[in-house]
Amino acid sequence: MRAVVVGGGIGGLVAAVALRRRGWTATVVESAAKFGEVGAGVQLGPNATRVLARLGLDEELAKVAVTPEVVRFCRWDDDAVLTEWPVKRRMRERFGAPYYTLYRPDLIEVLARAQPADQLLLGARVTGMTAGADGATVSTVDGRRLEADLVLGCDGIHSTVRSATVGDVPARFSGMCAYRALVPADGTETKVRIWLGPGRHLVAYSVGRYLNLVGVVPAADWRTESWIAPGDADDLRRHYAGWSATVAGLLDRVDGPVYRWALYDREPLPEWVGQTTALLGDACHPMLPFLAQGAAQAIEDAGVLAECLEDHDVPAALERYQRLRLPKASRIQRMSWDNNTAYHLPDGPEQHSRDEAMRRGEAFALDAVSWIFEETGSVG
Ligand SMILES: Cc1cc2nc3c(=O)[nH]c(=O)nc-3n(C[C@H](O)[C@H](O)[C@H](O)COP(=O)(O)OP(=O)(O)OC[C@H]3O[C@@H](n4cnc5c(N)ncnc54)[C@H](O)[C@@H]3O)c2cc1C
């Protein structure tokens, strides 16, 4: 059985590995001439690392991944702890897999090494496709036509495959943008820290040689979605004026490039699959990064899809994939959107009750979000 995987991001590369493990040929067709994840960080919860371990990638990943001690949510002005997940101590024991933070290019390198050269087409942008009951065909900008039993759209938030199959829902601008910067790690950062404050939040964690900083702030009229649009370190610092001395100290260390990325999502889609086509990752469930789950959900999709496709009855397998994955991914999409409000409450009564709920373990605590890290329903 042959699959064409459109898009060689995290989702597409994992899907191709997973399909090959189930006996498929899976050709990845990627528009970029080389793999291009930017130098930034990514957190992967046990729902994702469990899938990667089953694909035999755990040894390679463990060489480049960092296991933080804790994920800590804290207040913006005095670092007071609101809730904390005991990652190192509890994730493996409770969910059967680790919680990692990674430098994105390291993750992509591990995934790219797992692709056979004869099942990889780089610099080949897919411009159109047709699909029927017997198979599907994609065409590329340079005039190639690739036929397959299954076309998998892993081509991100502006998916061409989605437009050609289930149609489009308009992208929804969150009003926020993410500033991203890397600073050299000093070896002392053992936590993922998320400071919640009025109108904005800040995330900091180690990815090994660097400390990854993501500052989510109001974007005003900034609408550019690009990993490489430049930002300004002083602007970034100004957004956090008056925050805790720890935050100021971290931002003072920024003297390399700063990038800005406008944050969009889409409302959950009612369907992801046709008879011989399926969507995966940001192509079907783009979400705000306020649960650090976009890539993790793409990886979960890949694991479940390949498991469903083992018996080679493609339309039935795709239906089952959608039934298993769509409800969970949609719930996380909605919750990530809602966190745009919940994370950014101004100090006052609502913020006070949010913080109390966090301290009591009812909101954002590990018990409250553990369903995210559990296995997607078993494939029967
Ligand atoms: C600030 C920020 C922080 C984040 N942090 C986290 C985190 O900590 N944890 C987490 O799990 N997620 C995180 N995410 C989300 C995560 O980055 C995405 O959800 C994930 O990268 C999506 O992967 P994907 O493979 O589905 O799509 P993409 O990464 O968008 O990959 C799509 C690929 O398809 C290619 N492509 C597009 N169109 C075509 C075409 N027509 N033909 C051929 N190729 C094409 C593109 O070049 C690209 O390589 C974060 C996102 C942001 C913005």
From TrEMBL:
Residue intervals of the FAD-binding domain: 3-164
Required cofactor names: FAD
The protein's name: FAD-dependent monooxygenase
UniProt keywords, alphabetically: FAD, Flavoprotein, Monooxygenase, Oxidoreductase
Pfam family, one: FAD_binding_3
Gene Ontology MF terms in the entry: monooxygenase activity
Gene3D superfamilies named in the record: FAD/NAD(P)-binding domain (3.50.50.60)
Entry-linked InterPro entries: FAD-bd (IPR002938), FAD-dep_Monooxygenase_BioMet (IPR050493), FAD/NAD-bd_sf (IPR036188)
